[in-house]
Amino acid sequence: MQVVITGADGFIGKNLRQHLAERNDVDVLLITRESAKDELRESLANATHVVHLAGVNRPQNVEEFQEGNVDLTAEICDILAVMARDEGKRRPLFITSSTQAAFDNDYGASKRNGEVAAQKAASESGFPLFIFRLPNVFGKWSRPNYNSAVATFCHNVARDKPIQVNNADAEITLVYVDDVVERILQLLDGAQPNPDLNGFEQVQPQYTTTVGDLAETIRGFKASRESLVIGRVGQGLVRALHSTYVSFLPPSEFSYTVPRHGDHRGVFVEMLKTPDCGQFSYFTAHPGITRGGHYHHSKTEKFLVISGQARFKFRQIQTGEEYELVTDGEKAEIVETVPGWTHDITNIGDTEMVVMLWANEIFDREKPDTFACPL
Fold first, then answer.
1. How crowded is the C-beta side of 210, counted as CA atoms within 13 Å?
2. Is 15 exposed, middle or buried (0-12, 13-18, 19+ CB in 10 A)?
3. What are the distances in angstroms from CA 347 to CA 5, 149, 199, 325?
4. Residue 315: CB partners within 8 Å, gap ≥ 6?
5. Which residues of 129-155 are buried (b: 16+ CB within 10 A; e: fewer)?
6. Phi, psi at residue 151, to the nearest 5°?
7. What count of other Cβ atoms lies within 10 Å of the Cβ of residue 209?
8. What is the crossing angle of helices 211-227 and 236-247, to 10°?
9. Which one-letter DSSP state was computed for residue 71?
10. N or C, where is the chain less crowded by C-beta within 10 Å?
11. d(C-alpha 27, C-alpha 170), whole Å
């Protein structure tokens, strides 16, 4: 494929071109604001597919809406229509529009008029047309105070700047840039459009939240460095928001320190806590040092010796049954503690022992579920 991307230096353009650059079956022809008219025409002539992302959404003058959202779209469509007529080559055209096209404001009207121009040209010349009416798009490489509230909130919170929430209850509909790119790639690769949408494309999933919840979630990402408690950032909207927030961290904030507790035995460091899936930490032990010597009623743990040699001892607190095992950093062996069995771990090697630890719940000083019982 020879894919032309207009607006290649924009937010969605940067993400799309990066995904395409990872493939060896696509050549990408980039059109930016600096590209000359002849360059646009030449690129379109060499294209097999055209993804038109260029547009204007925050101009200095209202007239720029017409130039950037209608005139440029019409120009591209006219070129494709002529090529379809003269060469018989009907290059598919992908256009990013906006849900604002359904409303009577200057921006929405310009996006709607751009859609109409594309629909007319496609109908008359027969080239395939895919129109994406997008709500608020967010993700890495978006611009604060330009692309979306998400970008502005993430940028400001990551830099300890205030954010402005005029109406916390106002609803906002969002789509993640990776999902936008994925749907474009699917169609480029021959996926069939939804016939019920009459030439329009709808990116899924779409997320609806409030501006207040959005701000609170993003503030929570920053606060997690102090509390060590991170929410469910592995799926859905929170996953996408967390990825976007982290992408806005300046390099000076790529790292942070956590408390380090040390005594004669070694050190203990908590790394990460979750509201409902426990916490991660690690500890060290000098040669000959024993840690533990307690049992739990419900809490469970998983130990992984990273370096050094360890002996784990267990005793069932009522029957007295005993069990012992030895492991070391070369085995990648998980050792679990079992409720009702007292346990300890001893460094039986000649070097410092380092052990990773996962507990299924956050340690609660008021209810620690940890009872001393030496072996």
1. 9
2. buried
3. 60, 52, 67, 12
4. 321, 322, 323, 341, 342, 343, 373, 375
5. bbbbbbbbbbbbbbebeebbbbbbbbb
6. -60, -45
7. 15
8. 70
9. I
10. N
11. 42
**43 is written with which tokens?**
């690129």
32 touches 53 (CB < 8 A) = no
Active site residues: 107
- pLDDT per residue of the chain (375 residues) written in tens, 0 to 9: 999 999 999 999 999 999 999 999 999 999 999 999 899 999 999 999 999 999 988 888 888 999 999 999 999 999 999 999 999 889 999 999 999 999 999 999 999 999 999 999 999 999 999 999 999 999 999 999 988 899 999 999 999 999 999 999 999 999 999 999 999 999 999 999 988 888 899 999 999 999 999 999 999 999 999 999 999 999 999 999 999 999 999 999 999 999 999 999 999 999 999 999 999 999 999 999 999 999 999 999 999 999 999 999 999 999 999 999 999 999 999 999 999 999 999 999 999 999 999 999 999 999 999 999 999
Contacts for 157-166: CB closer than 8 Å, 24+ residues apart: 157/218, 157/219, 157/221, 157/222, 157/245, 158/222, 158/245, 158/248, 158/249, 158/250, 158/253, 159/250, 163/215, 163/218, 165/211, 165/212, 165/215, 166/211
Rounded distance, CA 337 to CA 322, Å? Answer: 13
Q: pTM to 2 decimals?
A: 0.93
Cα–Cα distance for residue pair 51/121, rounded to 1 Å: 16
Residue 120 tokens, joined: 């007319």
Residue whose structure tokens are 């207040």 = 212
Q: Cis (ω within 30 of 0) for the bond into 144?
A: no
Measured between alpha carbons, how far apart are the two ends of the chain, in Å? 69
Interatomic CA distance for residues 115 and 224, integer angstroms:
44
CA distance 44 to 31: 10
Helix (H) or strand (E) run with residue 218 in it: helix 211-227
For residues 121 and 81, is the Cβ–Cβ distance under 8 A? yes
User: What number of other Cβ atoms are within 10 A of residue 366's Cβ?
Assistant: 4
